[in-house]
Design a protein that fits this description.
mainly alpha
Length: about 240
């Protein structure tokens, strides 16, 4: 259990660190767009090589596709609720809120799977941990910066991302405890849920946000993020 607490905290910490970095300095829009594009590429690699590929190996197509559909619908509904709330308050922080929702809907199932793996005696890959950092850090930096721009106070931004990080870390502990009553089908569905939520978030929020800020550099930054994260995933 102690190992699950440790690795859960390590995997979730970039979410809070990114929010702190966004508060410590004002990121120029162009640089923020590059960071978001890089993070989007890293998340694409995570979907392809960690969530989808691993899910197929463990539980097959049906639970994976069912998880993808559930994750996509969950993110879509949550994002539309955020849009409606932002419209009522006449604020522009919806994009940052959508990134936070995406991080939560991705982080919970992803770290559940991490906890189950730890309980099963599977070794933790340092390459995988680095890949999580590469994808989570830009996501939280971009979200926190947008939330601050939309008028949210620094303390609320920190509390929001601290909450997201804590919930994701606790998911690792929950996965460790659930290991004895779950199997490969559950792990595959969890992988699919994370992949579905991330795919909608990337198309709906993260990539358009990056494109609006970094313009022609977005594609290059995305490819670099994908290449780095894919290399780390394939070497693990």
């Amino acid at each position: 259990m102690g190992e699950a607490v440790l690795w859960g905290a390590v995997a979730a910490s970039p979410l809070f660190v990114g929010a702190v970095l966004a508060i410590l300095r004002a990121w120029p829009p162009r640089w923020l767009g590059i960071v978001l594009g890089f993070g989007a590429g890293a998340l694409m690699a995570s979907i392809a090589f960690e969530l989808w590929e691993e899910g197929l190996k463990r539980g097959g197509v049906l639970p994976l596709v069912a998880g993808v559909a559930a994750g996509a619908l969950s993110y879509y509904i949550a994002a539309r609720i955020l849009d409606a709330r932002a419209a009522k308050k006449k604020k522009e922080a919806a994009g940052g809120g959508q990134l936070a929702v995406g991080a939560l809907l991705d982080g919970i199932p992803e770290q559940l799977v991490l906890g189950i793996g730890l309980a099963s005696g599977e070794p933790v890959s340092i390459a995988l941990v680095v890949a999580i950092l590469v994808s989570n850090l830009p996501e939280s930096i971009g979200s926190a910066a947008d939330l601050l721009k939309g008028g949210m106070s620094r303390s609320r931004v920190l509390l929001l991302w601290a909450g997201v990080a804590v919930v994701c870390a606790l998911a690792t502990v929950a996965g460790f405890g659930l290991a004895t009553v779950t199997g490969d089908v559950f792990r595959t569905a969890a992988n699919g849920f994370a992949a579905g939520a991330l795919l909608v978030m990337l198309v709906d929020s993260m990539i358009p946000e990056a494109q609006s800020k970094a313009k022609e550099l977005t594609g290059l930054a995305t490819v670099l993020g994908f290449a780095l994260a894919a290399g780390l995933a394939l070497s693990s």
